[in-house]
Amino acid sequence: MFFGRDRELAHLEALYKTDEFQFVVMYGRRRVGKTALISEFIDLQHKPAIFFSAQEYDAPTALQLFSERVYEFFGLTNLPPFDNWPRVLEFIAKRAVTERIILALDEFPYLAAANKSIPSVLQNIIDHHFKHSKIFLILCGSSIGFMERGVLSEKSPLYGRLTSRMEIMPFSYLDSAKFFPRYSFTDKVAAYGIMGGIPQYLLRINDSRNLKDNIVAGILSKASALYEEPRNLLKEELRKPMIYNVIIEAVAKGQTRLNDIATKTNIPRDKCLKYIRSLLDLHILIRETPIGENAGRRSIYKLTDNFFKFWYAFVFENAELVEQGNGEALYDSTVSPVLSEYLGAYIFEDICKDYLRRINGDSNAVGIKLPFLFTSIGRWWGTNPKTRMEEEIDILAFHKKEALFCECKWTTKMMGADVLAALKEKAGLFPQYTSKHYALFSKSGFNAELKRLAAQSGDILLIDLKALFAPD
Predict the structure, then answer these.
(1) Spatial distance between the Cα atoms of 284 and 305, rounded to a whole number of angstroms
(2) 375 Cβ partners below 8 Å, 6+ apart?
(3) Is the separation of the CB atoms in 256 and 301 below 8 Å?
(4) Deepest of 81, 137, 350, 449, by most Cβ within 10 A of its Cβ?
(5) With contact defined as beta carbons under 8 Å apart, do 136 and 101 qualify?
(6) Confidence of residue 436 (pLDDT cuts 50, 70, 90)
(7) 245-290, pLDDT tens digit by residue?
């Protein structure tokens, strides 16, 4: 089963059709679907490909297995393994002078760990052989830090040789919803808010069962594949996972500023910052600053992955209950009472932001159209100079003198005109924008008064769940 990735596939197909040397570096977090994407690309039109997925082999074993894969591709048998990497790569290059061949090296960081000269070997082969051939080279890796430092950075021997850089991101909320088409809009938001956009996690949702049953069986069970997933991922990437666990838990539970994280975890501030930087490198955390401002004291840290948010908010400290087989009781007592609050605080706003990005500049959009093409979008928070109170704008999108101010409400109550009035008052803090527009996102719709105001005005957009899930 393969969903989505239409843009990524189209990009790879366009490169492939050039019929000249291409070097694609593909990376992204584990389980995001990189291998599935490469396989789908190869399977389309049954392209000739040497696909080698590296594991934690020693150097001789890796070379032997790769040699066998190469011989198999060319239909050769009973030949000894190549004695070094330059020879096997030259062997491929000679046969790709007139024939288009995909060479995909999956989990490249494992290969480089076993043989640290591999990047330099590839650089030499590219310069003297591959660039004169029809090789379509793909280096793929899940270790984001290694791929960015060891392949993409200026210090890498491979720097400047790639023709395409592809960071494979988790699915959007809209693509994720394709995994559970029978769910209501509300349950689609909840499922995405818990599982995130990772294909292997989304496949765990069976939409013939209710959400609670899926979560209890798929996450809150000692026997489930996802029960220890975040913990295992950290073990693969980091030397001191226990320390990172408590930092991630603090962020998941709302401690988002550096000082608050350090206080909550009892880790000295300087050391805490060092650990946070490692989590930033792994794209587990992201640093967020009020839109329109430079990074500074008001910056906060957020988890990038919804499954990590959910797991560290509800599972990490309650592992003993799961171990005892009390997953359903944990859901009923701890998850269910605050799930709506969790979705409103951490998920719905990001979905609304993704929606605005999706329709931005879309002249063919059916239904809601934005009043202008924005170039920046994000959240804003700060102090109101008049009231000296902290204010927050869920989403602010702008371009030059035009701005779109947005409020996102995940509640069972219909949104009313009071929300619009409060948003307009906060918009008054931004006199630099001379053309102001408003977008209101609501889980439960809008009351008659607000609909009347929107109908009378040309600068108010009302967006409900049906609009959010309208297809492109």
Answers:
(1) 7
(2) 398, 399
(3) yes
(4) 137
(5) yes
(6) very high
(7) 999 999 999 999 999 999 999 999 999 999 999 999 888 999 999 9
